[in-house]
User: Fold these one by one.
Assistant:
Number 1:
Amino acid sequence: MTNITPASAPFSKPSQKPDDPRFSSGPTAKRPGWSVKALEDACLGRSHRSGPAKAKIRKTLELMRELLGVPGDYRMGITAASDTGAVEIALWNLLGARPVDVFAWDAFGKDWVVDVIDQLKVPDARSFEARHGALPDLSKASPTHDVVFTWNGTTSGVRVPDAGWISDAREGLTICDATSAAFAMPLPWPKLDVVTFSWQKVLGGEAQHGVIILGPRAVARLESHKPDWPIPKIYRITKKGRLDEAVFQGDVINTCSLLCVEDALDALQWLKSMGGASAAVTRTSENFKVLERWVEETPWITFLARDPATRSPTSVCLSFCDPDVLALNEEGRAAFAKRVSGLLDKEGAALDAASYRDAPPGLRFWLGATVERKNVEALLPWLEWAYGQAKSELRAAA
Ligand SMILES: Cc1ncc(COP(=O)(O)O)c(C=O)c1O
């Protein structure tokens, strides 16, 4: 932290830009080589309940099951309203039978706290929250309670390192929001009773739909427990007290976008051609290593995630640790971070790299499987340059 860039000598402007500057954490970069041609075979202008449309939806679900290694006795369905829709379907249908422990360490996890405690008012609900950068004490999860958590906190760049803290002998259900983790981090199915995600994260698919995956214990809960609160039609996955199996066999609750289905199918086929989910995990972690090495060698930037074991390799959140920046007030630090991300954006070196609006000021880069490593490598000199520029301006204004 001693190498403070002098105002008179900003880093020189690099000559080569990343071929693809899309580092946004959602929607994320499309897969390499994607063009609208990939959608030519979409089942457009047809009913989503027609034979060909259902065949597409089923194929998408089957490929997702294959690539994610979802056990045969877990149900998979497509929902409206993206990952939020899928998570809320789980919360609204399953909770209320026992106390709930909600763990939150990013903006989205905190939304689920609001759902469980303020909206559903589940009796005996407890929340365990941590500031951006840390994990709450997961050992507090009671095996007799239901547990709601986010595998990867997209806005803090903090993920759970594993699921060792979830009891194999649990009586409650685990409900895991795995958006920005699914396809990039292995998911231990026996520990997870409900998993949700959306297509616009690691798959780089078009946004609109969520995916909900229900294990046998979640299905047993659905069929034995009737929540005390109303369940809007868009969230209804039971019929006459039984699981509505059709919803998990390609019969969506309401009209889905067949264009988005085609796009998800294209992404899955690409993933399969690359070697499947394990190849996606490897691509992601190789991208992460490039940035991690640079952060370790660079005195003015650090990970928001304090414990290396919890650092997300998909949504990487960075903070400025330059003492001159840390000496600024909150507004000044936010302006500095905004200036750096603004320069990257203006130059077309990295688009949408500002930290999430509720997160501490800094930078955030999506490094999931659709991002090419050479683009992460090409980004590094631009980061040096943008920081140097912003730092010179800061010095000049002092
Ligand atoms: C961890 C997590 N949960 C939920 C959401 C909300 O997702 P969606 O916009 O797909 O509803 C996001 C979005 O980035 C997320 O990162």
Note: DSSP finds nine helices and 14 strands in the chain.
Number 2:
Amino acid sequence: MLTDCFLYQIICIFILGLIMGSFYNVIIFRTLSGESIINPPSKCPKCDTRLLWWQKIPVFSYLYLKGKCYFCKNDIDIMYPAVEFLSGMLFVFDFIKFGFSLKFLFSIVVLSSFLILAGMDIQSNKISVKYTILALIAAVLFNYNSLADSVLGAVIGFGIFYVLKKISLNIFEKEVFGDGDIYLLSALGAFVGISHLVITLVIALIFQFIFCLPAFVKNILVSKQYKIFYYSAWFIISYILFFMARIYVFNTNIFAKIFIFLNIIVSMFLVCKYLFSKIKKSEIALVEPFSPAIFLSLFLFLFLF
Ligand SMILES: [Zn+2]
């Protein structure tokens, strides 16, 4: 009986998340186009036809219409159902974790703001400072019982990015991070606290790396500069050998270990040097939006900690 009741609650929360997600889409697209959020009613952005009620049902209308506008048959941006679905999942995970509580409310505001920012970033490479500040305030409120951890996280998050920005400006002689990203990191720090700042950032960077990988590999294949593949393979093989030596899969003497370790250092140096030179010559676009990676790492954070 109890589990049944819980299941109904989950379904209701999921539907609420979907509806909110569809509202987030309105915020994302109308903030970017400068339209009012309340007026006019939903319409197709391609043919301007007003949508019928069933065409506004989150996710399902997209699936039913097979991703095409009912009137003009133009493709509907995949971001609409993606944001709706992510929002639905977000509400469910958050509810499982916190139940009906203030923590639930504040974390929903934080993660929803990050979702909106990620959507804006993907659509236009711009983020609205308004939602970053909203996320920051909600993040501090979320940590009402560990305020020091939260505030320190915000300050250090701000600091880390400020330093990274300055360093990258010197190395690459161009903007690698936008100003918005600094405030974003500050809000992230406030949410996860100083204690989890580094791990969340590492997860975000891994997501970012994965997002940038396809364009990067394509770039190399087109320009036929395979050096980076050799360097990376060298690095990965030395690392695996080192790892196996450490857990004594095979017996190695100290010199073999030092040799393997040197291989890791040298190959890693070459990979970094190669990447740096490419970024400097603008052959790798580093200005892929960063906020989607941050949103996903926070989502994972909610799940893990
Ligand atoms: Zn249309």
Note: The chain has a mean pLDDT of 86.
Number 3:
Amino acid sequence: MAHEKSIGITVKKADDMPEWYGQVVVKSGLADYAPVKGCMVIRPYGYAIWQRIMDYFNGRMGKLGVENAYFPLFIPESFFKKEAEHAKGFEPEVAWVMNRDESQEKLALRPTSETIMYDSYSRWVRSWRDLPLRINQWCNIIRWEVSDVKLFLRSREFLWQEGHCVYESEKECDRETIMMLDEYEKLCHELLAVPVLKGKKTEKEKFAGAHYTTTIEAFMPDGKALQCGTSHNLGQGFSKAFNISFLGKDGKMQTPWQSSWGFSTRLIGALVMQHSDDKGLVLPPSIAPYQAVIIPIIFEDSREKVLKKAIEIRHKLKDMRVFLDDRDQYTSGWKFNEWELKGVPLRIEIGPKDVEKDQVILVRRDTGKKEPVKIADLNEKAAELLETVQSDLFKKAQKFLKDSIVEVKSWKEFEKTIKSKKIAKALFCGGVDCEDNIKAKTEGANSRCIPFEQKNVKGKCVHCGEEARFWTYFSRSY
Ligand SMILES: [Zn+2]
């Protein structure tokens, strides 16, 4: 039994969230620390989740007319400096490669790919007939900002997708910037069961070089927001800097509008923190690499009979992602613990007594609830349970998010709300200096987003007392 204990999580989520999180990610086999400072290793179980996210999103992008492509990891320094705000924004975190031939220019390892992609776009876009141009790239990104890795949340290298589009008009660009944000929300809600707040970033928090940035923000149980995806309307700044122009329908040369949008392997971090518990990972069925695990309870005298039934069940559940754990070298108790740690939504137990009764025992990972189910009803019952688990996880997280938002009327209330690890919804002037001061005075609370729906914007900024421009969500963040 000592061994069974040692593979489990040794701290409680409520007591020490960072330690708990690290243990869940490593012990469930999602990822590991790397020998290189600031980097992580994504293990097969974690990569299977990323792959499911990619499959889902590739399917959605196909329907929206976005195509996948690949651009170089190296970005010439001169490209990088063409858009001044962009260059300035990324300067502190760019890793440079020195060319062996010193007469050649320095190369940046991509912290994002606007510049290298738009150089190509300037040759590919000629006429209105080439638009809209919608290209996505799945790749790795290098940002040399941190040395302490937080698996999936903060690392010098991570995986992401970045979409880059070109449009004839501002209106079209606006519409699709929001359309992609809506896609991100859908992905978080349907696949990951992670509810998000949607809105615009403030001037201080917008993407370097963007006209405006929109975002989806999840809220973690330790009272910190986690940015899960952003979609930027880039305006015409990059088009001008990279000489992208097209012959319009009116026969004149025009400057197009551009957007870019991205989410990263951070989503896996959000998923883990949102749902998991003191026993380990809890995965929503839609994203789980295995939705159910069958564990035969083996005794020597009934071995054949039980295994035969387990295989039969495995075949019966062919529409589900099911693993039959018939490994001989582990006890069933050990297997229960391991699959609990790995967050498989349903456990299907079958022992000799169950075979006699023509039943199995179904156990939910999220609630621990057990029930006997007749084998004849198993397909239907298991499918139904998976749907229930998915929607229960979402509802629980959504309730937590809603309960965490406090509409504050004064600076005193604002400070109290941030201290109590909640989200302050406050009237805000939108000023960059004002936001800097808020951050300094509250030990790190910053604006998360300006919700799209604004009602009763009347009064003074919660902090500086200037005329307020909008309601804004503030909290600490990852
Ligand atoms: Zn203010």
Note: The two ends are 37 Å apart (CA to CA).
